[in-house]
Design brief:
heterodimer
Chain lengths: 147, 64
């Protein structure tokens, strides 16, 4: 029988961590982050660029972002049914949490309440970081629930 | 749902890891089933029944 994917192989410090498995799963995230940072720099420093070029550079991280999603979908599909349930719960927690957070920041901004670095709303990077943090929390909660 | 998985596994002298390997699931899944925190899907329950050569209802039963 085929061996299921194990979350522990991509969880540093779990004892079964595999750098290879982690790299295979998260390589597109690294590409997306690099493109995002490079894009931020260029969009900020090249005001003379056309709107089309600026939009292309700003949205370029979405391509590796989609490939990253594809890697995760494949990985989650290879998990066994129990691990998959935990991940679905964690992803749902992250998606709903990020939506609520974005809506809350939008409401605060509309009421002119200072929101610090989120005065212009949540950008691509902030949204991703919020999802990542909330997914970690959701994963931890789901693991505790079934312990 | 109640189950006798732990008892049946112990009867064969298998660890949770041994059983997990035979069912192609993770050890955590076996642990969650044994502690009754998780009810397996019908295909997995049938696989467990087949592995132990017992009807599913002899291994799993509804809690009164």
């Amino acid at each position: 029988m085929n061996k299921p994917n194990l979350m522990e192989t991509v969880e540093p410090g779990s004892g079964q961590y595999s750098f290879r498995a982690d790299l295979r799963l998260n390589r597109w995230l690294a590409v997306a982050v690099v493109l995002h940072l490079v894009g931020q720099y260029f969009v900020g420093h090249r005001a003379d660029w056309s709107a089309f070029l600026r939009a292309t550079v700003a949205l370029a991280p979405l391509v590796p972002g989609l490939l990253y999603v594809r890697s995760w979908v494949g990985f989650v599909r290879g998990l066994d049914e129990f691990q998959r349930r935990i991940q679905v719960e964690a992803f749902l927690f992250a998606a709903l949490g990020t939506t609520i957070l974005g809506a809350a920041i939008g409401s605060l901004n509309a009421q002119k309440v200072p929101t610090g670095p989120f005065a212009d709303g949540m950008g691509l990077g902030e949204t991703f970081m919020a999802m990542l943090c909330l997914w970690s929390v959701g994963w931890g909660l789901a693991k505790c629930r079934y312990k | 749902m109640k189950n006798r998985l732990k008892e049946l596994r112990a009867g064969r002298g298998w660890s949770q890891g041994d059983l997990a390997e035979q069912l192609a699931v993770s050890r955590q899944t076996i642990n969650a089933i044994e502690t009754e925190k998780y009810d397996p899907s019908l295909p997995l329950a049938l696989k467990i029944g087949k592995l132990f050569a017992r009807p599913v209802e002899e291994i799993f039963s509804l809690q009164e």
